[in-house]
Write a structure and sequence with these properties.
The protein has 120 residues and is an all-alpha fold. It contains five helices and no strands. Helix 1 packs antiparallel against helix 2 and helix 1 packs parallel to helix 4. The longest helix is centred in the last third of the chain and has 35 residues.
């Protein structure tokens, strides 16, 4: 039974790393598209991003409920998870800054692009 539990935790950790890496890649593409006002690229990433966010939230919920699993990890494993999570946070924060800058630029010009109109 203990071996099965260890295998489940290892699988969840591997899934978390894969999802966070995928989410980071998507945000990198989306941030670039937002900076370039590339509405088509942002739109094309939407469905993939929604699925990735759903999987990410599920894994975060698992680790919130099972914090002892994280505490029991080897230091190197915890550090790796922390680093990829920190990178993801940086990309999310960058996205917020880009959106704020784009919104301020649009306000100065007195219009909203199609992307922004769809988000309202």
């Amino acid at each position: 039974m203990e071996e099965l539990h260890t295998t489940e935790v290892s699988s969840k950790i591997a899934d978390f790393k894969e999802i966070v890496t995928s989410f980071s890649e998507l945000l990198t593409l989306e941030n670039k598209a937002l900076e370039e006002f590339d509405v088509e690229t942002v739109s094309s990433l939407y469905e993939r991003k929604a699925k990735t966010i759903s999987a990410y939230r599920s894994l975060v919920a698992y680790f919130i409920k099972n914090q002892q699993e994280l505490a029991a990890l080897a230091e190197q494993e915890r550090q790796e998870m922390k680093e990829i999570s920190t990178r993801l946070d940086e990309l999310i924060n960058k996205r917020t800054v880009i959106e704020d800058q784009n919104g301020n630029q649009q306000k100065r010009h007195g219009y909203h692009c199609q992307y922004c109109q769809g988000q309202q």
